[in-house]
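To whoever is covering the structure queue this week,

Two jobs came back overnight. Logging them here so there's a record in the thread.

Job A:
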Amino acid sequence: MRVPCLRVPRRFGGSAIRLLDRLRLRDRQLRIQRDGVYVYIPLLQEPNPEDLAELEDRLPEFEVLVREFREAKKPKTLVEILEGRLPPHLLASLPRSLDLIGDVAILEIPPELEPHKRLIGDAVMQLYGRIKTVLAKAGAVEGVYRLRNFAVIAGSGETETVHREYGCVYHLDPTKVYFSPRLSYEHHRVAAQVREGETVVDMFAGVGPFSILIAKIHRNVKVYAIDINPEAIRYLRMNVERNGVEDRVTVLEGDAGEVIESTLAGVADRVVMNLPERALEYVDAACMALGESGGVIHYYEFSSEPDALEKAEKRLRDAVKRAGRRVSRVLAARRVREVAPLRWQVVIDAEIA
C-alpha cells in the first residue's frame, strides 16, 4: 500500500513517532520501516501547514515521501502498542489487567504514569476495538452506594453500557452503580447451587448479577432482590424485564436489614450477602430472613492474611451465634480475589440451623 510517510534519521525516530502520535498523524495499521540510515513512518494523510510547522519546530531533519508499506501485526498488549512511545522504564508500570464492562474499560493508572494517562487510554481503545470509553480509577469504592470516582482518559465519555455475562444482559453505568466483572465466576457458582423451589434473598443486589442469573437458570424459584441505591434499582428493574424473569424476581428498594425486618422475615432458604465492606453488620438480618428450619448464607467479606479464611469463618460463626442461630456446617470457603497485598475478598458458604 502506497501512502505518505515521514522519513527521519534513525536517531530522531523515537521523537518523531511520539510527535506524530500526539498530532494523530501516524497510521498505526501500517508497519514502520527502517534501513541503515532512516526511519520511515507511515502517515494517515499529508501533514497540513499547521502540522508541518510543528514538525519543523520539533524535528531537526525530516522529509515527507510516498512509499510502499505493509500492514502491521495487530498488537496484543499495551506494552506492544506503547513501546517507543513511553520511556522504557515506564513500560514495566503499565497496568497488566483492566475491567471490561460492556464497551467501557476501567483501569488503574499508577502515579508515575499519570502524565501519560491519555496516551494509555488511546492505546486501550486501539487494543480493544469495541471500547467506546476508557475510565481511570480516581479513588476507592466508598459510601453506602459503593461508588468510585473515575476520570475519562479516552473515548466519547459515555459511561452507560450493556454488559453480557452467562447469557444475561445487564444495563448499567459504572459511575452510578457498583458492578465488578471479576465476580463473574461467583455469580455462576452461587446460582448453580440453588435448587428448584427455593426462595432466595439477595440482600445487596446491585443491577442483578446474582438474582437474574439465579432466575434465568432455575424455572421454579423466587428471588427477592434488594438494594438501597435508587440508580441500581432503576437498572435492576430494567434488567429483570430485559432478561424475562419478572415472574421470579421481586425488586425491593431500601436498606436490606429494614426490608427483611418489615417484609421478608422467615421467607428464605438461601441468602446472598455480597457487601464485603459491611456484610458482618447484616448477619443478624440474614439469619432473620431464613426460615425456622434454617438455610444457606453466602457471606462475603474482606479479610487479611495470615489465615484470611479462618478469620472470616470465625467472624461469621460469632455473628450467627449472636443472632441466636448457629453454623451447622461450612459448605465452602474460598478466596475470591486479591484486593490489596495480603488482603482478599473471601466467601464463606455456610449452612445455618
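Job B:
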Amino acid sequence: MREWSGFLAEYPVVIGPNLMCTPWPLDADLNPEAGLDLIAQATRFILPASALGLPVVAFPMTLANGALTGIQIYADLWREDLCLEVAEIIEQGVGQIAPIMPTS
C-alpha cells in the first residue's frame, strides 16, 4: 500500500482496461484446464485496487468481438473525487460511452 500511495502522490489517477484481454468466448473462464489462467491474466490491472481497497470508477467504452469493453480509473485512498472527476472528463470527451443495445 505504501508503494501505491507513493506512486499515486506523483500520478494522482491510474487509467487502464477493465480486462487485460479482449472478451473471451462464453464459459471459457470455467474451463478446468485454462480458466484460472485466463482470469489471472485478464484481471492483472484490476486486482491491485480491489485488494488494497482503492476507490475505483469503471465504465463501458465500446464493443469488441460483440462484447462490451471498458476502462477503470483508480486513485489513492479517500480520493473518490479524483476518480469521479476524471470519469466525467472522459465521458464529456467521448460522448455516449456505451452503445445503446436494441430491445426486442
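Note for Job B: The first helix runs from residue 2 to 10.

Please reply-all if you pick these up so we don't duplicate work.
Q.
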